[in-house]
Every structure is written in C-alpha cells, then in structure tokens.
C-alpha cells in the first residue's frame, strides 16, 4: 500500500533538463516533488547545461522527423510563458535563425532548402545579399544567398537552470543532490542508504538510464563559449559547409556559443584538436571579428538518443521514463512535460494554472508517437 495514498507525491530522478522541467510543471499542479541527482544542484554534469539551447525546429527539419518539428513548434510559446513566469531573469528571444553558405558551398544550402521545402515552405524566407545585410549587418557582402527562419528562438540555459531551481525552492521541492539512485521501480526509488515511496516516479536520467532502456546511445557534442567584444550578431547563424554545419549563437554580454560536433560515441573526454580546428576556422570564415575572440570555456557532453532519434515517454502505473531527447531537448521539453502530466492523470486546465500552459491540442495527435509502454521491445532488447 502506498504510504501517500490520495496525495500527489512524485520522485524525479535526474535534475538535468527534463527532470527540472517535470519538477516545474508538477509543482504548478500542486504536486509534492522530490528531485534526486547524483551530482550537485547546479546540474553541472548534465547534458542540458552543455547545450546551446536553440529552439530551432525548422533548422532541424532536414534530420529530425515531423514529430520533433511539431513538438518544437508547440513548445516555443510554452517556453515564452515559462520564462515570463519565472522570477529570476532569463535571456530569451524569438528573433529567428539565419542560414548562409560561402559561394563555393551553396550546394549545401540548396540541398537543405530542398529537404525542408516539401513540408515547411511557409516557415522560411529566401534572402539575397541585401536581405542578409539588413538582418545581420556584420555579414554584409560576405554571402550572396541565405534563408531566414523567423519562428525560431533561443534561451540562456545556464540562467534557466538557476531560475527554475529558485522557483522549485519557493515551491518547497525536496532536493537530494549528490545522491546516486541505485534502483527505480513503479512507486519506488532506492538510493545507497534509503528506499522512498511515491505515487509516481519519473525517470529523467538521460544517458544514466541505459540499465532500464538498453537501446539508448550517446551522441557526443562539443561546443565552445567565446567572448568576442568585436563581433555583432543578432540571432543564431548556421553556416552550411560540406564537412560540418556550425552554429554560432549570440548571448548577452558579447558572449557566443559555437557548436557543435555530432559524433556517434558516449566518450566524454575533452574537446578534440580536429573539432577545435574545424569549428573555429569555420567561425573565422563566417566573420573575421571572431579572430580576437577569447575561448572562455569548452564543453563536451553526450546527447541521450534512441534508435529513431525521437523522444519517448515510457509508462506504466506509478512510473514514467522520459528519454531520447537527443539534440532537441530544449526544443521539445515543454510539450513532452505536458504530455507526461496527461499520462499522470493531471488535467492541464487545473484551476491553479493559467490557460496559456494548455497547448496540448496542437500536438495531441502525436500522443501515440511519443508514448510507449515500459519495456517496449523496440527499445529494450
Ligand atoms: C553540445 C550540445 C548542444 C546541444 N544544443 C541543443 C540545442 O541547441 N537545442 C536543444 O533543444 N537541445 C540541445 N542539446 C540537447 C539537450 O542538451 C539534451 O537533449 C538534453 O539535455 C537531454 O536532457 P535530459 O534531461 O534527458 O538529460 P540530462 O540533461 O543529461 O540530465 C540527466 C540528469 O540525470 C542525472 N543522473 C543520471 N543518472 C543518475 C542516477 N543514477 N542517479 C541520480 N541522478 C542521475 C545526471 O546527473 C543529470 O543531471 C544539445 C546537447 C549538446 C551535448
């Protein structure tokens, strides 16, 4: 018999991106939340802190399925609401993304346009040299053709991690930092020293959940944080090149996030010389103002991916496993959290929640594409 019968007690394992998002949504619905992580409260080893945190559904549409793109389009307004609601300031902007390629590499851009045109032709605008210069004066006269994706957004994930932790403290969430969870079962979380009972357990361990979801794999990503006082970009820029597609994402205080490699491996060792040379020389070719930039930080982490590179919620009564966020964790997390709440029997129109959080209708048709029973044989063998 569950000791919390008729109450709303949830234990979340993993205080990375998805764990924090679930804790935030659940506290808005008056759940009592315990949040476990094997590391510190800052989430310093989580993949979510390594991310560039672009909300870029159409930029991803050449590789990602339409499921991911639709979840992403639904999540952008949810992110705006989350940021507005949190007390601590978070840099968030919806200024679109810009794709460019050097004249000799224009086939890359043409191929990308070809791939996204069929389903998403209303989501981008072709640009000529003048159009590029109007959006990004620093890139004037460097590129002849580009495309602009106006719906896309970005946020500062380091600020979000801090802001959401503060909001969870205000909601009296019980944190269990430096607590490695040994075993997870419906209603039950076991650590080295203790067993906890809950109405629901939510497993958000990312790659740490490989014991429960054997099909999980890591996809290594390397990225740089730069301080570039001479550079001036207004929005995320993607440079299409035959060997690598880089992105450069402006942040407040003249900082920029440069990324990101994509290597099929769960190797967490430091950034390689090859990636450093390729990413930084591509950046310099985009804008020579980065020549005097300072490399403030290099970061490596591995994205948790399922075979089809789509997110999944595995469920049975008393237990949810949310995983497979791959390179789109920020992009899809709010929509995934809303779906998870539905599975837990929580009505998103709860009177304590403002209506702007009820966007599920725009992607509710995807429910069966992102929800599976636990031990689904496609992922557990
Ligand atoms: C370089 C890079 C750039 C990226 N850029 C973007 C981007 O621009 N946009 C986007 O949408 N996505 C991006 N991503 C992807 C995004 O970061 C991931 O999809 C997301 O972080 C996955 O979230 P998660 O919560 O599943 O895992 P994580 O964020 O890794 O969180 C898992 C947590 O579980 C904890 N944990 C694991 N095992 C245990 C255990 N046994 N006990 C207790 N705690 C445990 C870990 O310590 C960790 O804190 C990027 C990723 C990388 C690497």
The largest sheet, given as strand count, sense and whether it forms a barrel, is: 8 strands, mixed
CATH homologous superfamily designation of the largest domain: FAD/NAD(P)-binding domain
Q: What fraction of the residues are assigned to beta strands by DSSP?
A: 25-35%
Low-confidence stretches: 349-358
Strand order of the largest sheet: 6-7-5-15-16-17-14-19
Radius of gyration: 21 Å
CATH domain fold name of the largest domain: FAD/NAD(P)-binding domain
Please provide a written account of the structure.
The protein is α/β, with parallel strands linked by helices. It folds into 2 domains: 9-80 and 157-216 and 308-373, FAD/NAD(P)-binding domain; 97-150 and 218-305, 2-Layer Sandwich (D-Amino Acid Oxidase, Chain A, domain 2). 28% of the residues lie in helices and 27% in strands. It contains 9 helices and 22 strands. It has helices at residues 17-28, 47-50, 66-85, 106-120, 129-135, 157-170, 273-286, 329-343, 367-370; strands at 9-13, 32-36, 54-55, 92-93, 97-100, 125-127, 146-149, 153-155, 174-176, 181-185, 188-191, 195-197, 200-203, 217-227, 237-240, 245-251, 255-259, 263-264, 294-305, 312-316, 319-323, 371-373. The two termini are 31 Å apart. Mean pLDDT is 93; it is low at 349-358. The chain binds flavin-adenine dinucleotide. Flavin-adenine dinucleotide binds at residues 13-19, 36-39, 43, 45-48, 50-54, 180-181, 204-206, 208, 221, 223, 259-260, 301, 303-304, 323, 325-331.
